Amino acid sequence: MSVDVLLGLQWGDEGKGKVVDVLTPAYDVVARFQGGPNAGHTILFENKKFVLHTIPSGIFNPNCINLIGNGVIIDPYILEKEISTLGKSGVEVTKTLFVSRKAHLILPTHRLIDAASESSKGANKIGSTLKGIGPTYTDKTARIGLRVGDLSDHNFNEKYNTLKNKHLQTVSQLGFDYSNHLIDGYSFDAYEKLWFNALSTLLKLQFVDSEYFINDLLSEGKKVLAEGAQGSLLDIDFGSYPFVTSSNTTIAGVCSGLGIAPNKIGKVYGIFKAYCTRVGSGPFPTELDDSDGETMRKIGNEFGSTTGRPRRCGWLDLPALKYAIMLNGVTDLIMMKADVLDGFKTIKAATAYEYHGNQLGYLPFDAVAGMLKPIYSESSGWTCNITKLAENDGLPENLERYIQFIENEVKTPVTIVSTGPDRKQIVYR
Ligand code: GDP
Ligand code: IMO
Ligand code: MG
């Protein structure tokens, strides 16, 4: 059996959580392969809303195995909170949630370094979610990180203290005074205590050698869906560096983050919004500073699922979308939040950029310098409410036209259109 993959093609928050939840009944296993609690994946059904940070979005189906792969990084305190919130709504995770022994741990001091490093950058800050993502992946590649499997080591506390002391030196070198700094509302000492207490919840979960676990399931004929976090334009190699996250959010992350060989990959679902958003710093060629951007933010409720920050909004960027499709080998496109544009008389999409007086159809190396001026194509809006459409209903003519225009530009079919945040608001083409 092959592994299907679902990836965000923009700057994250495309609606991955919703679609994974919708697709889960067709899969036996849902697996996260990278990122950590910087992710916030929203799922809405029966008037209940959940935001998952570490747990895969297949968790609401009791028949589905959910795996946190080796490429993911885990903050035990945040994971414990997620488990407890789900538990209060009757969602029991201990039977279906599996955790890779090779997944790295986010330590409280990783979060301090994140804050220290952002504050030292001043106006050039990345706009990190401050969940300790960069510092934890840095330790992973520096070969000094602590992993889930290390929790069973009788020397764990000693290893923890060694790393903690090293981190505190870094924090001090960055000139960061953390005595008044709060982590999720707690002082460092209080957070560290909560972190240690949360280890008992983590230790109750089923730890696996996830590369064997997932390949064995595949050999048994089980169907696997790999759930991406963040988006392709935040990829450490291919995103708008340095305004990126610290993992491979693109297709390669599936192989390294789960131990799956490339020839096992089947469908690649690429998710994009009918417009664009970005939270945090970095270039955004089609960003709108006007009432259209404000309307997208308001109607689309574009505020970060993890940090609550307002998301920057703008028109769809087709050269960037093409780039993400190329990098990932997308087979099926899924268009999200088309309903947010219901009230727009004119819909724009950038087809190229003006760059040093020339027209450019791709993202140049120095895109970061903000030198790209979008060249737009305009189409007429559908100006009607699509949120009540049933899954096999046809789409309004102008929306269908807009989608066909996109398909023609990017040479990839749009097979699903999402028409609202609820599980049921979905139309198949
Ligand atoms: P993710 O990180 O990719 O899972 O996306 P987020 O959950 O961070 O952000 C997507 C937001 O849009 C959430 O608030 C969803 O409930 C919401 N959403 C998802 N799909 C749609 C849609 O088709 N229309 C509207 N209006 N909202 C949607
Ligand atoms: P999901 O999975 C949107 C952004 C941050 C910041 C940059 C680096 O919900 O789509 P980090 O905390 O990783 O050091 O932040 O990446 N970012 C996201 N933006 N959605 C996400 O995840 C994100 N995860 C990180 O805002 O600009
Ligand atoms: Mg999100």
Task: Describe what this molecule looks like in 3D.
The mean pLDDT is 97. The chain has 429 residues and is α/β, with parallel strands linked by helices. Helix 2 crosses helix 6 (188-203), helix 3 (108-121) packs across helix 4 (133-141) and helix 3 runs parallel beside helix 5. It has helices at 16-23, 76-88, 108-121, 133-141, 156-173, 188-203, 210-219, 252-258, 291-299, 318-328, 397-410; strands spanning 3-8, 29-32, 41-45, 48-52, 65-68, 73-74, 97-100, 104-105, 206-208, 224-227, 265-273, 276-278, 312-314, 316-317, 332-336, 346-355, 358-360, 373-380, 414-418, 426-428. The chain has 11 helices and 20 strands. The strands form 5 sheets. Strands 9-7-5-2-10-1-11-15-19-20 form a 10-stranded mixed sheet, sandwiched between helices. Helices cover 30% and strands 21% of the residues. It binds guanosine-5'-diphosphate, 6-O-phosphoryl inosine monophosphate (IMO) and magnesium ion.
